[in-house]
C-alpha cells in the first residue's frame, strides 16, 4: 500500500488533463490576465464571461496546476500572483477589448481583483493592464485609418492589397506633390543678368502630380483577397 507521500506523487488523470488544458490555453493565447475572484457569485462570473466575449476564456484554475502549466507552455509567469482563489482570462482576440471588459467589470464589482498577467511573453502589472484598457481597440484604429483615406483618390484604397513596391512609389509621389504644393520660399531679387531664360509664353513642365497619377494608376483595379 503506497504511503501518503508516494500517493501525492502519483500521476492523477484528472490533474494531468487539467494541466494539459491550461497549458493549451497559455500556448494559444496572446495574453493572459490573472484575477482573484473571491466573493464573486456564480452569476457574476457568468456575466463576466459574457462581457468578455468569445475571444476570451475566463477559467477558474488551481494555482499549483497553473504553475506547472505555465512552465510547460514556456510562459514566464510571476508565480507570486498565484495566491488565493484564482481565475485567468485567456485572451485570443484583441487584448485591449479584454482589458477594458475586465477593468469595467472590476469597477462595478470590486470583489474582482486584477493582479497582473502576460502579453506576448512580457509580464504585466495590474497598472499596465489598466493602461492597456485605456488604449483604443484595433477596430477603432482601423476605422480612423479608413476615414483618413477618404482624403486620398478612391483608387488609392486598392493599395491596401497592393505590393509593397507600389505603396512605396505612391508614398514618394505624394510627398513630391506635397512639396510642390507648398508655398515657395521667398527668393532673393534677381539682377537683370540673372533673369530666367525661359520665355514668358513657354508652357511649364508637368507638375509632380503626374507622378502621383502614374503611381496611383499602377495600383491594382481590384483589391486582392484579404489575408486570413
CATH fold assignment of the largest domain: Alpha-Beta Plaits
What is the helix/strand order?
HHEHEHEHEEHHHH
Largest sheet: 5 strands, antiparallel
What is the CATH class of the largest domain? Answer: Alpha Beta
Unreliable spans: 1-7, 189-196, 204-228
CATH architectural category of the largest domain: 2-Layer Sandwich
Using DSSP, what is the number of strands? 5
Widest sheet: strand ordering: 2-3-1-4-5
The tally of structural domains comes to 2
Q: What is the percent of helical residues?
A: 40-55%
Count of alpha/pi helices: 9
N- to C-terminal distance: 56 Å
Q: Looking at the chains present, what oligomeric state does this protein adopt?
A: single chain
Can you tell me the overall shape? elongated
Q: Bin the strand percentage.
A: 5-15%
Mean pLDDT: 75
Write a compact overview of the structure shown.
The chain contains 9 helices and 5 strands. It has 228 residues and is α+β, with helices and mostly antiparallel strands. It folds into 2 domains: 4-136, Ribosomal protein L10, N-terminal RNA-binding domain (Alpha-Beta Plaits); 152-182 and 204-228.
Amino acid at each position: 500500500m503506497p504511503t501518503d507521500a508516494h500517493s501525492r506523487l502519483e500521476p492523477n488523470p484528472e490533474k494531468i488533463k487539467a494541466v494539459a488544458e491550461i497549458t493549451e490555453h497559455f500556448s494559444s493565447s496572446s495574453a493572459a490576465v490573472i484575477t482573484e475572484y473571491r466573493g464573486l457569485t456564480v452569476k457574476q462570473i457568468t456575466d463576466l464571461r459574457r462581457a468578455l466575449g468569445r475571444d476570451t476564456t475566463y477559467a477558474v484554475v488551481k494555482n499549483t496546476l497553473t504553475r506547472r502549466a505555465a512552465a510547460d507552455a514556456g510562459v514566464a509567469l510571476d508565480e507570486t500572483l498565484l495566491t488565493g482563489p484564482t481565475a485567468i482570462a485567456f485572451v485570443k482576440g484583441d487584448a485591449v477589448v479584454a482589458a477594458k471588459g475586465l477593468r469595467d467589470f472590476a469597477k462595478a464589482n470590486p470583489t474582482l481583483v486584477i493582479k497582473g498577467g502576460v502579453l506576448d511573453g512580457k509580464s504585466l502589472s495590474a497598472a499596465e493592464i489598466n493602461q492597456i484598457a485605456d488604449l483604443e481597440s484595433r477596430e477603432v484604429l482601423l476605422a480612423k485609418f479608413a476615414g483618413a483615406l477618404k482624403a486620398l483618390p478612391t483608387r488609392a484604397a486598392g493599395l491596401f492589397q497592393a505590393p509593397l513596391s507600389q505603396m512605396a512609389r505612391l508614398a514618394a509621389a505624394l510627398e513630391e506633390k506635397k512639396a510642390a504644393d507648398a508655398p515657395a520660399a521667398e527668393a532673393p531679387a534677381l539682377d537683370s543678368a540673372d533673369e530666367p531664360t525661359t520665355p514668358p509664353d513657354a508652357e511649364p513642365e508637368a507638375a509632380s502630380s503626374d507622378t502621383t497619377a502614374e503611381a496611383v494608376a499602377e495600383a491594382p483595379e481590384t483589391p486582392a483577397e484579404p489575408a486570413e
